[in-house]
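Look at one record.

>
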Amino acid sequence: MANFPVVEKCPSIGREKETVVADLDGTLLRGRSSFPYFALLAFEIGGFFRLFILLLLTPLIGLLYYFVSESAGIRVLIFATYAGTRVSDIESVARTVLPKFYAGDLHPESWRVFSSCGRRVVLTANPRIMVEAFLKEFLGADTVLGTEIGSYGGRATGFVKEPGVLVGKNKADALTAAFGEAVVPEIGLGDRHTDFDFMSLCKESYIVPPQPQVKPVTTDKLPKPIVFHDGRLVQKPTPLTALLTVLWLPIGFVLACLRIVTAALLPMPLLYYALWALGVRITIKGTPPPPIRKPGQPGVLFICSHHTLLDPMFLSVAAGRHIPAVSNTTSRLTEIISPVSTIPLSDDSANDADIIEKLLQKDDLIICPEGTTCREPFLLRFNPLFAKMSDELVPVAMVNRTSMFHGTTARGWKWMDPFYFLMNPSPIYEVTFLNKLPRELTCAAGKPSQEVANFIQKAIAATLSYECTTFTKKNRENYFRKMIS
């Protein structure tokens, strides 16, 4: 490493016409191990058993990697993760799950140099299919050179194609094949001795020393924000975290079933205390309006931000009474097990308006005008339909926090969403009731429905410290349809 200066000494001004070639793990990313990303792939594609097998092989992978060769260890890692999986599933996870975790581990100094150059090339031992989507879409990489995996009949074999894993001399050969011998890249970035071969081919080369304490690049510094992402796991699965996850899954499933049965059987006034005893924390802020209303007067319409299918249940627990809900994102199983009546909407405005109007004549009602969920601190555009239905509007800011599993999915089994959320050791829901919208700000006072919807969106966003967006449910669906197909 003494032969190369550290990356902090690399100037980044005036590099717009130059080419940078960088390694990924330990260079562009702070973490030097690619295990967490393979573990994510294993869990998202193969579930509990694939992750369990990967963990069983981890000692062998470590022995081969550190005492035999880097290439041998990576070959076993690839085989354990990829063998028998559909190539389309690998591509889907690479587009919808991995970018969130990669983006959260970007090295600030490497990114400073990498982003300053006009042409950006990444040279990595990781399978190209696994990293290319993130590098090109979110980091603006022009070329990604990685290990190529074999496939047969649309499924990965788990073996790698020639010339093998891109480490050492193979990296240098891949770079020469891509650029030709006459063209020499201006900057090379690496972090270990197996990068020295390709770094020596560059005019300037810099080493990225291990700095686990350095803070990653904040996501607002990326060329493109990550608004939508998928996957069940909340934390990046290091070997220890992955082991704890595998050990917790059976316990968590039993606990989730117990929590669901409790919610279905107990009366709503007792449910807050019962869930608290079972580890579910519910924080209530503000005061919900009382259920009393004059005969013939329509019910109150609760307008809430949308995070999981369980939003109506937790809002009802916070209010201390059953409040029915309408939703675009529900499943048959959720309707059966939920203690709150959930009526599905059809995305047909006239039909949905009729449903909402009839329900409001009978009781108060919960609606999530985003129409779908978003995990990041953004609020999607509110469908203004609700504003035309009532002038008794109560905004409710809802947010949840989990430590192991996300309670939503785009590519997985939707009916498992409540189970995954309640499988967390101690999930938290925070429900904040805002003041009822003054009549002069409703459609009854002549305000356009979209203006009313935007006002409530901004009020909820301000409470949660979220950012308002113009993205819609259709935008999210189209994004995941494109990423998954």
